[in-house]
């Protein structure tokens, strides 16, 4: 369990070809009567042989996430298609600074990038801004303590937090070494509204649109 409503699944996928940080998979579930449905989930960790990690946020009225978070048991089969995507990815050969902006569970593919950097021993500078509703909704909380990460709470803040609850603003963007003059590669992931607002904010302060990569998910999910 990552939070009261999210968990990480570790799946063994025979013949898995490997993947890049930022890619995702399609998960398909098929009922006994033949009905099937699928959802896309970001890979939460870099390639590790036949092991694949997915962090799933439960959507109460969803078709897939309640099964994955509450019913699925060790040994139960599911179908995966992937890896999918080749644009919203970070490659360990890059030495450019990287600015990551996450909204809610949009932190999952960005966490894969952070872990891939660590795994590769890369010296590329990384910085994460993570917008989340409240402290109990933070994914990978303990692991992020050792990273260059700033948590931005939108609904409730922990005791002693100087920044009041509120959405991402221009004042939250890091300055020295992370502004447009540093030309970082920017990765933005989260709900559509967050992604559009954050990407526009980066452009407004002078970041090169060509260096801003976005990935969004809709409100239905699950």
UniProtKB/TrEMBL annotation:
<dbReference type="Pfam" id="PF00970">
    <property type="entry name" value="FAD_binding_6"/>
</dbReference>
<dbReference type="InterPro" id="IPR017927">
    <property type="entry name" value="FAD-bd_FR_type"/>
</dbReference>
<dbReference type="GO" id="GO:0051537">
    <property type="term" value="F:2 iron, 2 sulfur cluster binding"/>
</dbReference>
<dbReference type="InterPro" id="IPR017938">
    <property type="entry name" value="Riboflavin_synthase-like_b-brl"/>
</dbReference>
<feature type="domain" description="FAD-binding FR-type">
    <location>
        <begin position="1"/>
        <end position="90"/>
    </location>
</feature>
<keyword id="KW-0408">Iron</keyword>
<protein>
    <submittedName>
        <fullName>Ferredoxin reductase</fullName>
    </submittedName>
</protein>
<dbReference type="Pfam" id="PF00175">
    <property type="entry name" value="NAD_binding_1"/>
</dbReference>
<dbReference type="InterPro" id="IPR001709">
    <property type="entry name" value="Flavoprot_Pyr_Nucl_cyt_Rdtase"/>
</dbReference>
<dbReference type="InterPro" id="IPR008333">
    <property type="entry name" value="Cbr1-like_FAD-bd_dom"/>
</dbReference>
<dbReference type="GO" id="GO:0016491">
    <property type="term" value="F:oxidoreductase activity"/>
</dbReference>
<dbReference type="InterPro" id="IPR039261">
    <property type="entry name" value="FNR_nucleotide-bd"/>
</dbReference>
<keyword id="KW-0001">2Fe-2S</keyword>
<dbReference type="InterPro" id="IPR001433">
    <property type="entry name" value="OxRdtase_FAD/NAD-bd"/>
</dbReference>
<dbReference type="InterPro" id="IPR050415">
    <property type="entry name" value="MRET"/>
</dbReference>
<keyword id="KW-0479">Metal-binding</keyword>
<keyword id="KW-0411">Iron-sulfur</keyword>
């Amino acid at each position: 369990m990552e939070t009261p409503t999210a968990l990480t699944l570790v799946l063994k996928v025979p013949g898995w070809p490997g993947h890049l940080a930022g890619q995702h998979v399609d998960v398909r579930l098929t009922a006994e009567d033949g009905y099937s449905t699928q959802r896309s989930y970001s890979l939460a960790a870099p390639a590790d042989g036949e092991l694949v990690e997915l962090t799933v946020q439960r959507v109460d009225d969803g078709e897939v996430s309640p099964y994955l978070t509450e019913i699925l048991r060790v040994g139960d089969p599911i179908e995966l298609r992937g890896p999918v995507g080749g644009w919203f990815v970070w490659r360990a050969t890059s030495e450019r600074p990287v600015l990551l902006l996450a909204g809610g569970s949009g932190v999952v593919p960005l966490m894969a990038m952070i872990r891939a950097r660590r795994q590769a021993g890369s010296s590329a500078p990384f910085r994460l801004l993570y917008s989340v509703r409240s402290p109990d909704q933070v994914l990978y909380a303990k692991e992020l303590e050792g990273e260059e990460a700033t948590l931005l709470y939108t609904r409730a803040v922990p005791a002693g937090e100087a920044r009041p609850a509120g959405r991402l603003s221009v004042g939250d963007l890091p300055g020295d070494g992370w502004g447009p003059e540093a030309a970082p590669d920017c990765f933005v992931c989260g709900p559509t509204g967050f992604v559009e607002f954050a990407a526009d904010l980066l452009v407004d302060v002078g970041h090169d649109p060509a260096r801003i990569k976005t990935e969004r998910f809709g409100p239905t999910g699950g």
